[in-house]
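User: Can you help me understand a structure? I only have the sequence.
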Amino acid sequence: MKKLIKNELFKIIAGLSFFIPGAILSHLGFTYLSLGFLIAALLIAGLPVFIGAVKGILRRDFLDEKFLMSIASIGAFIIGEATEGVAVMLFFLVGEYFEHKAVRKSRKSIKELLDICPDTARVIVDGEEIEEDAEDVEVGSTILVRPGERMPIDSRILSGACRLDTSSLTGESMPRDAVVGDEVDSGVIVLDGAITCVTVRDHSSSRASVVLELVENARERKSREENFITKFSRVYTPTVTGLAVLMAIIPWISGLLPWQSSVYRALSFLVVSCPCALVISVPMAFFGGIGAAASHGILYKGGNTFSPVSRAESFVFDKTGTLTTGEFSLAKVHSVIDETELLSLLASAEHNSNHPIARCLKALSPDYIPADSIRDVPGKGIIATVGSSEIAVGSLQLMEDVGASAPEEGYSVYAARDGEYIGAVLMRDTLKSEAKEAISALRRLGVKNTYILSGDRESEVTSVGAELGIDTVHHSLMPEDKYRILEGIISDSKGGVVYVGDGINDAPCLTRADVGIAMGGKGSDSAIESADAVIISDNLTKLPETIRIASKTLNISKQNIVFAIGVKVLAMILVATGLVGMWMAVFADVGVAVLAILNSMRTLRVK
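Assistant: Let's start by predicting it. Here is the structure, written out as tokens:
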């Protein structure tokens, strides 16, 4: 019963069941009997509002919509307009009902996104399955995930194979295959085939937890439009309250209106001036935009990112891992000795390195013998002892330092044995398949300038830039060089500048740019932390989507601001001049609020 009493729809129906007989009795002239019905209707519909208004007064925050509606309805009773006093409260309750319903729908859409991380995990201990809280599972634990279940923690598959639904994290609709050795992010759904995995991160550091934290924190970073509404309301509400007081006093004192008519007009003015349409609908538009983006695998860290993204004029890209996959393949070999021996020596020297080129070299010679010792030569390469030989692997400068004459140029890695040049290899980073289309889509959306800032050699960067149609490329850069060049791009740009990167060395630029967008799949923690937005799947086609979602969200929020203020001002003028009464004021207030909120909900639907 208690739950039923709190139900908004029940209060509206119960209030109407007393209001309608009361209004009829009032029209028939049964004043006192009518008053009893109308008071009952007012208490049913308005008691929670009155209590809220009193609480607002006690915490010195009394100029809100509950205070305004309470004054309007009680004032109407005092001046003998009991029917309209109850109508004010009932229509306000109807507006609140639609408002809360819209907010619940919005929050449900967000919750469906956020409900991606299971609270428990099935841990295998001594051959037995034990269900534990996911937060308590340690790195290196063995877990079992069955078909239809979500991965609770980032893990690597030990046995089994399956297809994965990654849509909750990346927005990608097509399932992907996973086999032994593959890493699986938390939050994805195992569609078929049970898999046994070893956890590679703890629960708090897993992908789904990071996503949830970013979305939750996004609510605290308000957009310019949201901040405008907050500041506007602080000035607007006291102003209209003061105007209503003057409207009640001046016409009566000056003899222009009887006191009942003067107060009635002031009360109608209070009703129509209620700012709830603005206060609710604009933040809701940004909340919906953040949720829509997240459902597409794009994490905005706050509404304050939407405006600079929507007016972005320049996009600046890191190369490796951003425009390319970061996985290298062997393109060309120049060998003085046997080619197989050369590749084996390179793999031996690079066996301690986790650089993508080193990984490729080691994969080409799986039977290599690890070097006995390795010495770094900063900025040039390494010198390793393999058996009884000293192997130098690195740049042409390193070859000169060890006295080796390398006749060939244009290779990625050069090698010398005991001071004698033995060969070189050319490695090529694979361009992301969607990169070219993403750049074209950005241009169609109004991006005028594109740049690459990379630490790689000129030939590699120029080749990638030419293939993608990038306007300007910069190569052989240190992190401080990237930052310096980005500063120049920002100072020369009239619109917003977006930097897209994935590595630790990109963190300063991601922070400095108007908007920093990090690749979240393989991106470093520092890059993700420094960025304003994160693309979970590393898919570059999400970049145009960031602009589309931001533009749509901003357009809807501005529509709400113009529509709400415009209708409010027009209605206040009509009320102040006596052309319309309290009924029209109620319709204007509730109607504007409902329409603005419904408009805000459109941000949840982005194709």
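Now, to help you interpret it: Residues 542-576 form the longest helix (35 residues). The mean pLDDT is 81. Let me know which part you'd like to focus on.
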